Structure formats: structure tokens, C-alpha cells
From TrEMBL, chain A:
PROSITE patterns: ABC_TM1. It comes from Devosia rhodophyticola. This is Carbohydrate ABC transporter permease. It is found in: Cell membrane. It is a multi-pass membrane protein. The chain crosses the membrane at residues 28-53, 89-112, 124-146, 158-180, 201-226, 261-280. Keywords: Cell membrane, Membrane, Transmembrane, Transmembrane helix, Transport. Its main location: membrane. InterPro entries: MetI-like, MetI-like_sf.
TrEMBL record, chain B:
It comes from Devosia rhodophyticola. InterPro entries: Bact_solute-bd_prot1 (IPR050490), SBP (IPR006059). This is Extracellular solute-binding protein. SUPFAM superfamilies: Periplasmic binding protein-like II (SSF53850). Belongs to the bacterial solute-binding protein 1 family. It comes from the Bacteria. Residues 1-22 form the signal peptide. Pfam families: SBP_bac_1. Gene3D superfamilies: Periplasmic binding protein-like II.
């Protein structure tokens, strides 16, 4: 999803900036292809919506592609009640927002040291962080479980928050330090000459310039954490601590699945991220563009 | 900066809410059967009765998911978060594994003290016992199953009547019915060739050629694979595809879509497990439907259901045992059957729902003759995916029946040798 939106964002920017001299037929081809891609992207959402508002009996007769013969909110209601969805929304929001904030903070400090501080062996540090991104979560689940148990954090949201703040900041560090590497030295030198210490340089010089990128990174952290499944599934035992993504597992039984129920769950599950994305869309495109222009 | 203070406050809140725990006596119980399923309905009513019997106890039920217990069951059982009683998936890789790790309490004493031995017969407790290696069939009793499941053919009674056909009692009659439907331009069998029902059809056919020794060797991983039953099954399935008894699309079809063909009245027969009963019961309105067993001499694909297990850290063992007794009692067994479930210990005379009545009597028939052949993927870890993949290949024609059984034999014999 990220890639598509990024490229769309820069396209619209390009359109604003350049007035093409004349309309070539090629534009229509591009429009056609983009429309096709758009429909392709929207198709799963469409499927989720039409099946979420179908009755199971209706689905049994018509299948997944038929339009619903009547609008029925039964599946949505059932999923909301069975999963205690309002509670799950609060849990997911607490975890994702906290991870986004802490993840960005950690990334910022790391990147400041690596990108501007130019600490010794910064390349090695970057490689280590990159490894952190590449390690599959399945392989670290057991160590994390034992650590969480040893510290008494098993089945607490704090465990998930710490884990993801660290995992996400690996990517954040990598991204932000490459941005900071090309940060104009003159500005920092000027600030230092005015007597600013390192802390002041970070907060009063670097952060204001970096703000759009930080917002983008934070937004991604939020969405990624929101969609995480395996580690929350393993770490959060009690229903009261679980997240939206884990609750969606309710729709799949041992041998059976209920398609209309699953559709309702996926619709409710993606709605919050979709909303969040729409709200922060401008921030995202702006941040990406800032990076691109520089 | 303001943001980080906010975040810290949130973190602190999370910590404290996680730590608040009730001090009074609490009975924690989990299961993952769907709330609408026959088991879910009967068990929640049984839990109401338990609540009424013990007003001083706070009963804390959590609806779990199969995925969660499958992914982290042993981690949960190995922590203080484990409940007092929970439903756990039966089999060597699941209940057997956690019993061998010492994470459960044995129920041998309760088995006789609570009188469960008078309700359940020998066949009903085969999957309750696991030895110290976690292999089922012998050892202590670690769990109790209170319902059954089996694979059978669901059939559309109206379509059978219209075509003037009767329920087949032999393989030849089954094929004759297939042929009669085909002549009328109806593809008779809905098959999820890329899903579980594909391997269940394969096993049902294989079990028509299986005797006691073969089943025990196969499920117990006791000898290299004797491929004759599988060769017959594979050849039969290939013939069915070639003769047009199965749609060509079904090679890539999953169970939901195959069940849909049956539910929408397009295909008159669908071979799958009793877990479909609830769904068919509530969603099929336009025609009458029934069940018949794939004609086998003794063994059917099926088993007792998932187990009630008591974690080693359970603080309310008596309450856990009392609840198991409740779910085994005629009252809730009958209620489960009336909701379309497969009761293990109900009196058929008291069951009013014809679906549940039939299921209970068929299961009793299989279990009384000790004819539960279990599922084909059980003996070898990861065999489920191997079977899915190989059956799909067989139906698509990328492997011949001979190649197919050779591939199965290779995987099976490897596991048999290295166990």
C-alpha cells in the first residue's frame, strides 16, 4: 500500500508543478492505466463491504461476487459484540500511538548520533540496525516470550510497546540517519557558534527541519504496529489486552470459516487505519516530497 | 516534548490496568468453539448452571481463537496466565506435546471418581491418553472430549428424489448415483481439491480398503507405509475427475467454495466433516438435506472432539471437573445435539433436532464398533500440507496415482525411520 500511495503522491505534485505544453493522447492511456490500477486496488475493499452487509444465507445462495439482496448489519454487529471491538480499538490505539511516539524518539536519537554526530563505526551500527529489520519475527518470538516472562511483562501491552518501539526504530534509524547525513553542516556550525550545545542543536535546529520526515516515519510506525499480528497474538493472552488484528482471528475456526463474518471483521479492522491514513495523507505526501526535492 | 510525557502517562496507564486482578475466588475458563456453534451454545448454558451453583465464585470466561492457542498454547500453559480449564486441540502435536512437557494435570482419578468412565467408552478416550512421549493411545488421561466429529457425505435430498435415486450403501451404488446425475447434466460431487476436504475424500476412500492392522500401523507410525489403500483412493479420485463426477475447477477450489456449491443447490453431494452441520443447518433454506457415510467396512474418517484440559497451575480443579461433568451430562449433551452438534453421550430418544439426532446415532455407531480412523495427516508432522499439495497435483494430473503414492510413501517412511 505504501508504495502505491507514495508514487501517487509524487505524481500529483508533478502535475501541480508542470503545465504540460499540450495534451497528448498518451495522457489518456496513462489515465486509463491508473484507473485500472485504482479499481484493482479498490476491489478488495469493495468485496469486504458487499460481503459484510450480506446475510450468511444470502452468501450461501449467491456467493462472494453477487450483490447483496438486502442490507444486513448483523455480521458487523456480531463481530463488534463478540470481539468487544471498542475495547480492542482502544488497545490498538494506545499501543500504536505509543509505539509511534517512542519509535520516532529512539530513531531520532540514534540518527542524530549516526548521521550528524558521525560516531565511530556508524556504518557497522547501521548494518546492525538493518539486520533488526530483516530478522523474521517468528525467530525472535520465543526469546521475547522468555524475556517478557522473566520481567513480568508477559500479557501486558507494555511488552508489545517496547518490542515494537525497538523494531520500528531500526527502520527509522536507517531512514533518518541517511537524511541527516546530508543535513547542511553550515546550519549546525552556525548554531554551535552561537553557543548552542548538542541538545539545543537537536531540538532547535535539527527537529524543526526534520519535522515532516518525522511525521511520515511516525505515521508509518502507527500503521505498521496497528497491522502487526504474530507478536501481539503471542504476547497478549487476555482478551482485554488484545488488539484489533488479533481479534480478527475470531473469524477463522479450526475447520470452518464464516465468509460474511470475516468480511465484516476485515471491514471493521481496516476502517481505522484507512481513516488515519486519510487524515494524515497530506503529511505523508508532503514529507515524501520534502525528501525528494532535497 | 509534550507528546512524550503524554506517551509516558499512557504507558503507565497500560501497566496499571494490566496489573489489576481480582482478589476473590475466580474460575477462569477458555474455549475457542464459536459462540454460535452447537458446542458453544451448550457450554455457555452449562457455565450458567455452574455460576448458579457457586454464587461465591466469579466465573471469568474468555472466547479464545483457534489461531491463538495453536500459535502460543504451550507458552500460555507455561505461564501464570493459564486459566483453570480450557479447550485444547486433540492430537500428538498439541495436547500430547503439552502433556509430555508436564503442563497439564492428569485426570485419571477424576475419570473414575466423577463417573466419566461410565459415560465414555474405550474408543471415546483413545485421544485422551498420551504417553510420556506425547503419543496418543496409552498413558495417563490428560483431557476429556465431550463431542465427536466425523467425515460423511452431505446430500441434497430433493435432488436425489427428483432424480429417483436412493442413498448408496456400497461404493458401486455411490458411483451409480454419480453416473445418474452426470447423465442429467449435473456434476454430482463438490470437492475442495486444494483444501482439507480433498484429503478427507482421499482418506475416506483409502479407509474402504483398510483393516485394523493397517489403521494402527498407519496412525501409529509403526511400519513403512503400505500404499495399497492410498493407491486405490488416488486411482478412484482420478477416475472421478476423468468421468466428470467432479468439476474440473475443483482442483483449485477451497472448502468454502465447495461447500457453497452444495449450499446453493448446484452440487447434490459434498463430502466433509460434521463441523459443517451448524452452517448447513442455519443457512440451507431451499431444500432438504441429509448425511450418509462413505461406505466403508469399518473405519470412517473422524475422531472425538477437542479436549477439556486442566493446566498444571489450575487453582480450581474441583470446579474444572464439575464443569466437565456438566458438559458430559445428558442435559447439555442433548442441548448440544439439538443445536446440531455431534453428541457423544446423549440419549437419542430425547433429541428433537433430526440433524443432531442422526449425527449422534451415526457417531455412536462408528464409536461402538471402534471405527474412528482419525485423520490422514495425523501420523507425520507437516503431513497436512503435504497431502493438500499432493492431492491437488493428483487432481490436476501433474502426478499419476503411482507417483502420488510414491511421494506420500517417501515423506511417511522418512518420518517413520527418524521418529
Amino acid at each position: 500500500m505504501a508504495n502505491v500511495t507514495l508514487s501517487q503522491g509524487s505524481n500529483s505534485f508533478a502535475d501541480d508543478a508542470y503545465q504540460p505544453p499540450r495534451r497528448s493522447p498518451l495522457r489518456w492511456v496513462v489515465l486509463f492505466i491508473l484507473t485500472l490500477l485504482l479499481l484493482l486496488t479498490l476491489f478488495p475493499f469493495f468485496l469486504a463491504v458487499i460481503n459484510a452487509i450480506k446475510t450468511a444465507a444470502d452468501y450461501a445462495v449467491g456467493g462472494p461476487l453477487s450483490l447483496p439482496s438486502s442490507i444486513d448489519f448483523g455480521s458487523l454487529q456480531k463481530f463488534w459484540n463478540v470481539s468487544d471491538f471498542s475495547r480492542k480499538l482502544v488497545n490498538s490505539a494506545i499501543i500504536s500511538i505509543t509505539v509511534a511516539v517512542f519509535g520516532v524518539l529512539i530513531s531520532l536519537f540514534n540518527a542524530y548520533a549516526i548521521g550528524i554526530g558521525r560516531i565511530k563505526g556508524s556504518r557497522i551500527f547501521l548494518v546492525i540496525f538493518l539486520l533488526g529489520i530483516m530478522v523474521p519475527q517468528e525467530s525472535i518470538v520465543y526469546p521475547l516470550y522468555y524475556m517478557a516472562k522473566a520481567t513480568g511483562l508477559y500479557d501486558t501491552q507494555l511488552a508489545v510497546i517496547i518490542i515494537f518501539a525497538v523494531i520500528q526504530s531500526a527502520f527509522g534509524t536507517y531512514l533518518l540517519s541517511s537524511v541527516l547525513r546530508s543535513f547542511p553542516k553550515e546550519i549546525i556550525e552556525a548554531a554551535e557558534m552561537d553557543g548552542a550545545n548538542r541538545w539545543q542543536v537537536l531540538w532547535q535546529v535539527v527537529v524543526p527541519v526534520l519535522r515532516p520526515s518525522l511525521m511520515v516515519v511516525g505515521t508509518f510506525f502507527f500503521i505498521w504496529t496497528w497491522n502487526e499480528f504474530l507478536i501481539p497474538l503471542v504476547m497478549l493472552v487476555s482478551n482485554n489486552n488484545q488488539t484489533v488484528a488479533v481479534a480478527m482471528g475470531l473469524t477463522r475456526g479450526q475447520n470452518m470459516s464464516d465468509p460474511t463474518f470475516s468480511a465484516a471483521a476485515s471491514m471493521l479492522g481496516i476502517a481505522p487505519t484507512l481513516l488515519f491514513f486519510l487524515v494524515f495523507q497530506r503529511t505523508l505526501t508532503r514529507g515524501v516530497v520534502v525528501g525528494a526535492v532535497k | 516534548m509534550r507528546k512524550s510525557i503524554l506517551a509516558m502517562a499512557m504507558g503507565a496507564m497500560v501497566l496499571t490496568t494490566g496489573m489489576v486482578h481480582a482478589q476473590e475466588k475466580t474460575f477462569n475458563i477458555w474455549w475457542f468453539e464459536d459462540a454460535d456453534s452447537a458446542e458453544g451454545i451448550a457450554w455457555s448454558h452449562a457455565l450458567d448452571e455452574l455460576r448458579a451453583n457457586h454464587p461465591d465464585v466469579t466465573v471469568n470466561f474468555e472466547q479464545k481463537t483457534f489461531a491463538q492457542l495453536q500459535a502460543s498454547g504451550s507458552m500460555i500453559l507455561n505461564s501464570s496466565q493459564a486459566p483453570d480449564l480450557l479447550e485444547y486441540n486433540k492430537g500428538n502435536a498439541t495436547a500430547g506435546l503439552v502433556s509430555s512437557q508436564g503442563l497439564l494435570l492428569p485426570l485419571d482419578d477424576a475419570f473414575t471418581a466423577q463417573g466419566w468412565d461410565k459415560i465414555l467408552n474405550e474408543g471415546d478416550v483413545v485421544l485422551s491418553k498420551y504417553d510420556e512421549m506425547g503419543i496418543y493411545g496409552s498413558g495417563h488421561i490428560w483431557g476429556i472430549s465431550v463431542y465427536g466429529e466425523y467425515v460423511s457425505a452431505f446430500y441434497n435430498v430433493d435432488m436425489f428424489d427428483k432424480a429417483g435415486l436412493t442413498v448408496p450403501t456400497t461404493m458401486d451404488e455411490l458411483v451409480a448415483d454419480f453416473e445418474a446425475f452426470k447423465v442429467q447434466g449435473i456434476i454430482p460431487l463438490a470437492l475442495g481439491g486444494a483444501d482439507t476436504s480433498g484429503q478427507h475424500v482421499l482418506a475416506s476412500l483409502a479407509y474402504t480398503k483398510a483393516d485394523d492392522a493397517w489403521i494402527q500401523n498407519y496412525q501409529g507410525l509403526r511400519a513403512p507405509l503400505d500404499t495399497a489403500p492410498f493407491l486405490y483412493a488416488a486411482q478412484t479420485m482420478v477416475d472421478w475427475v476423468a468421468n466428470g463426477y467432479v468439476s474440473k475447477d475443483s482442483t483449485g477450489m477451497n472448502d468454502d467454495d465447495a461447500a457453497l456449491q452444495f449450499m446453493s443447490g448446484k452440487a447434490p453431494i459434498y463430502i466433509s466433516g460434521t463441523w459443517n452441520l451448524g452452517k448447513f443447518n442455519s443457512n440451507i433454506k431451499d431444500f432438504k438435506w441429509g448425511q450418509f457415510l462413505v461406505p466403508t467396512p469399518k473405519y470412517s474418517v473422524g475422531s472425538t472432539g477437542n479436549l477439556w484440559v486442566v493446566p498444571k497451575g489450575s487453582k480450581n480443579v474441583e470446579l474444572a471437573e464439575e464443569f466437565i461433568s456438566l458438559t458430559l451430562s445428558p442435559k447439555y449433551q442433548t442441548e448440544m445435539a439439538n443445536a446440531g452438534g455431534v453428541a457423544i453421550a446423549a440419549d437419542p430418544a430425547t433429541i428433537t433436532n433430526p440433524v443432531g439426532k442422526n449425527a449422534a446415532s451415526v457417531f455412536k455407531e462408528i464409536s461402538d464398533k471402534n471405527g474412528l480412523g482419525f485423520y490422514p495427516d495425523w501420523p507425520v508432522p507437516g503431513f497436512y500440507d503435504v497431502l493438500i499439495q499432493k492431492v491437488a497435483g493428483l487432481l490436476q494430473g501433474t502426478s499419476t496415482p503411482d507417483e502420488f503414492v510414491a511421494q506420500l510413501k517417501q515423506v511417511y517412511d522418512d518420518a517413520q525411520e527418524n521418529q
